[in-house]
Automatic annotation (TrEMBL):
Provenance organism: Seohaeicola nanhaiensis
Protein name per the record: Phage head-tail joining protein
Length: 67
């Protein structure tokens, strides 16, 4: 499915505002929970990044201990 940056921005704005109702391009979508909304955001981000040829950033944490 082809998602747009406009849709992604609307989803992120709704999530930041703490609401599960999203409106964009004359559409109104209500998600059942914040976790459902966040899952959709992650799905769209992954799809957009794969279409643009950019790899998803990976983050790692290094720990050091002297024993």
């Amino acid at each position: 499915m082809a998602w747009t940056q406009t849709e992604l921005d609307a989803l992120k704005s709704a999530y930041a505002a703490g609401t599960t109702v999203v409106q964009f391009d004359g559409k109104r979508i209500e998600y059942d929970s914040e976790s459902g909304l966040l899952k959709r955001i992650r799905t769209i981000e992954a799809e957009i990044s794969s279409q643009s040829g950019k790899a998803k950033a990976r983050v790692g944490y290094v720990t050091f201990s002297r024993t």
